Amino acid sequence: MTTSFEEFTPTGEVEGLAITALLNHATASRRLGLLLVRLGGHSIGVAVDGEVVASTTDSRQVHGRNKAGGWSQQRFARRREGQARVALQAAADDAVRVLVPRLDELDAVVLGGDRQALDALRADRRLAAVFARASNRVLDVPEPRRSVLEEAAERARAVEITVRDLNPDPEDLEDPQAPLPEDPPPEYRP
Q: For the region Disordered, what residue ranges are annotated (predicted)?
């Protein structure tokens, strides 16, 4: 079995079952930056071992889309774009204030929220170093609030494990060619 550990440590492969190495990796102390952004709000913080130690959360009004036609639709769309621009500028300003001064202390930055909003923030040159330190995954989060930030701090430490047996024992495999039973056993019936 080959084990690969990525994200926060250099990628390495170990032959055999590497439980100790996996546990050491999963339980290592980490200081993470969290950048959660949706169009109407953001929550930004620093977490140590799943506990938020510094943060800021803010929300701005951004109207939803309108299906009306004509001049009103265009006026409404311009107003919505302006509201979104102000909300994203506030998120960028808070990220610069909370994350940038602490970048040297962070092991990684974990992103969450709306990918389009994150892409808009990525265009801000002041945040280039923040996004350079960001991990590949983007957490799916609801409207960013302090409680959502605390939950994201815990989720960011989660480890997903996939076990693959390269040489499975033939006796352990079910026959993929075997026909399915006509009736499922009683414990599987609705």
A: 160-190
